[in-house]
Amino acid sequence: MNIYFLRISHFIRVIHAALTIVIAGMFVSSACFAHDMPKSSVLLHYRQDHVLLELRLPIDRLEIATGMVLSKSSDTFEKQRDALGSYISRRIQARGEGGDLWKVEVESLQPPVSVNIDEVRALVRLIPSRKDESLTDLSLRYEVILREIATHVAVLSIQTDWDRGVLANQPELIGSLGFNEYDIHIRRGNSSRFAGFLGMLDLGVEHISDGVDHVLFLITLILSGALVAENGRWKNRGSAKGTVLGIMWSVSAFTIGHSISLALGATKILILPSEPVEIVIAASVLISAIHCLRPIYPRREAWVAGGFGLVHGLAFASSLSVFNLDPSHLISAVLGFNFGIEVVQIAVVLAVVPSLIILSKTPGLSFIRFAVSILAGSAAIGWLFERTIGWSSPFTIIVDKLPKHAFEIASCLFLLSIACRTLFQLRLASLNKKQRLK
Questions:
Q1: Is the confidence at residue 12, as pLDDT, over 90?
Q2: ∠ CA 357-349-366 to the nearest 5 degrees?
Q3: Residue 231 — left, alpha, or beta (φ > 0 → left; ψ -120 to 50 → alpha)?
Q4: Across the beta sheet with 92-95, what order do the strands follow?
Q5: Which residues contact 67 (CB under 8 A, 6 or more apart)?
Q6: Helix-helix angle 212-225:327-359, to 10 degrees
Q7: How far apart are CA 50 and CA 371, in angstroms?
Q8: 3-class SS at 106?
Q9: Are 195 and 163 in contact (CB under 8 A)?
Q10: Which pLDDT tens digit goes with each residue over 86-129?
Q11: Per-residue pLDDT, 324
Q12: Helix (H, G, I), strand (E, B), or coil: what is residue 138?
């Protein structure tokens, strides 16, 4: 009997040990799968006469591959630049349609730009052997890190291709290299002369549509343009012609302002840090909202709109800086992007102005002005806190979702304006009737 119990006890211990090993293995494997190995990114930028590779290389894997201890300090990294550039150029090979080798030049190397980014960035220029050679076919052999670390993976994508309308906001994934696979053949699709322009137009539409601060500033401009200051207070213009002309002056000045600074910023003639620009934009919304409540710069709305437009244009220009476009494409890019912005501005004007014209002879315009001013001012205060001290207001999170309901908001505004006009006319008719009876 004792032997029987001993055997059962031994069997239980064996099962317990086996389960422990299995469970531990599950935790180890799940931890391994949960932590992805860092990958390299190879971003292709097609230019008129060459292809630019933008490499983003994990610094720890790059150190293993090169045997170098890479510094995050710019001064120390500068001393390692030549050796690192030589390593990268030896690990990249490109051939064109005819099979001739292309020239490989390391254009720039950049250490990690912040403490939170552990990658080295490099720009590598692939230059065809003949000036008239097409960029349609590219056979790329890429071995940076991959040859030394067999488990490393490099993900390739086309980041910008102007002639095909491929832009940084919608890159085109090509494939990946690794596990002793170093070669890839890249064939470009059909190109069009206007593809890049149309792509920039779409980007401009998307940028201004998502930019609630720009749209709210525009709406406050439209509202103040529909009014006239008299004795320190707002008064309805009363006529459709006066309302339209007042709005046109303010909106046109804003358009001219942001178009000038967009061109200057995109060509890098005028460059300012994005943080102070975003803070000034939030302040512009707040000032314009206060002006809608009570005139603080009467009869100077167009000048103020143009001045703030210069600041808004610098924010628009920062969206173009990520593309590293050829100078030959820059003019088309600015025109396309700006045209996209204007399309949305015109849509906002067409959605709002008819309602304001209907309301121009009613007290309802004052109610709309007050509601929009409070909304814009509250959102602007939230953006100021967010862009200065990093505090996110729950109210601004709600406001940021308003563009998704733009059609419904415009429709409600139009119906409200008709209702206000109808009630106002009925009240006037009732008062006139009473006066006649007297």
A1: no
A2: 45
A3: left
A4: 92-95, 137-142, 183-187
A5: none
A6: 50
A7: 54
A8: strand
A9: yes
A10: 999 999 999 988 889 999 999 999 887 665 678 999 999 999 98
A11: 67
A12: strand
